[in-house]
Amino acid sequence: MRYLTAGESHGKQLTTIVEGVPSYLPLTTDDINESLLERQKGHGRGKRMQIEKDLVDIVGGVRHGYTLGSPIALVIHNDDFKHWIDVMGEDPVEDPQAVRRIVSRPRPGHADLNGALKYGHRDMRNVLERSSARETAARVAAGAVAKKLLAELDINIVGYTKEIAGIKAVEFPDYTYEERDSISKASSVRCLDPLAAEQMVNAIDQAKKDGDSIGGVVEVYVEGLPAGIGSYVHYDRKLDGRIAGAVASINAFKGVEFGIGFEAARLPGSQVHDEIAWDKENGYYRKTNRLGGLEGGMTTGMPLVVKGVMKPIPTLYKPLQSVDIETKEPFNASIERSDSCAVPAAALVMEHVVAFEIAKAILEQFPHDQFPKLQEAIKNYREEIRVF
């Protein structure tokens, strides 16, 4: 299973093509729209979220509520394009220099300058339109398909905020998927700790007042994965490696950790590794879950827990200094419409990115062109490892 996305932030639309989904998976626009609308929520989001109403058009690969086994084509229209036709239209223009909103001052922390150097763009709008985090809407659409597949296999996934601007949420290790999901959706910052959530809201408001931005840490929790998904035999088949790469590819993400993560470097082995136990009802399990449900590149059967670090958004309303690439003179960087904090939305994006990697690994391990046969294969595998 794989996906490709296309489209620019202020272009006509975002397009996602998902290939490799089995036939007869139940799938409707509601399954995808729920995720897209959740992505637009969160305290600290900018005006763009008030302009767009992200709803998907399924234009291929689904008929009468079921996938066909052929590529699934998804379209998200950009409502704001009507205000950008002259700037972002595909037809040639007589005088490109006359087109408004040319960007010649790269923003520190963005892809602007590096992308301009790589592709030879004098107008860096050609870079920032594609490198924009708006592209994550297309990725969430792909991840929503994966989430639906996982849910039908009794595998559930949720993302939420752990930290914003140094304000850390209390750990709730005993919370189930249902509890994490319902609490995070009810929180304006997708945080499980109501006390920390209130402090996070205040920090976001202060950052906005200061013309600044703040980042944080988000966590994704996956319940229902059987042991043995992934592989130890080659570097590119290790599930933790795949997930880490996918998470690091999300805009503004700068770190990934599993379970207790970097804390493991400061602890003895006896406080890091998870002891193995067995009972007749469940088979093998771990007494703790410090390694986040992964050992040797494979799932252990315990909940998978992965964190991602998001830096503050680099588009600032009190911009950092930059250099105009035309005059080479120092100037303040260009200002584009932006959020003061996108950490809550990033939790939702990461949830869907992780979902896609897990679904992909499952389909590689249990290859089936028809979804009911995949369900049967997973059911049989769960029973095999339970009595192993």
Keywords:
flavoprotein; FAD; 20% strand; five-stranded antiparallel β-sheet; single chain; four-stranded antiparallel β-sheet; Chorismate synthase, AroC fold; lyase; 388 residues; globular; alpha+beta; Chorismate_synth_AroC_sf; 11 helices
Question: Averaging pLDDT over every residue, what do you get?
Answer: 94
User: What proportion strand?
Assistant: 15-25%
What is the CATH superfamily label?
Chorismate synthase AroC
Low-confidence runs: none
Explain what you see:
It catalyses: 5-O-(1-carboxyvinyl)-3-phosphoshikimate = chorismate + phosphate. It holds the Pfam family Chorismate_synt. NADP(+) binds at residues 39, 45. Homotetramer. With 388 residues, the chain is of the alpha+beta class. The chain is built from eleven helices and 17 strands. The chain has helices at residues 29-39, 48-51, 85-88, 112-119, 125-131, 136-152, 177-186, 194-209, 239-248, 343-365, 371-386, and strands at 2-6, 13-19, 56-60, 62-63, 66-67, 72-77, 156-164, 167-168, 216-223, 253-258, 276-279, 283-286, 294-295, 298-299, 304-310, 321-323, 330-332. A hairpin with a 2-residue loop joins strand 4 and strand 5 (66-67). It is globular. The mean pLDDT is 94.
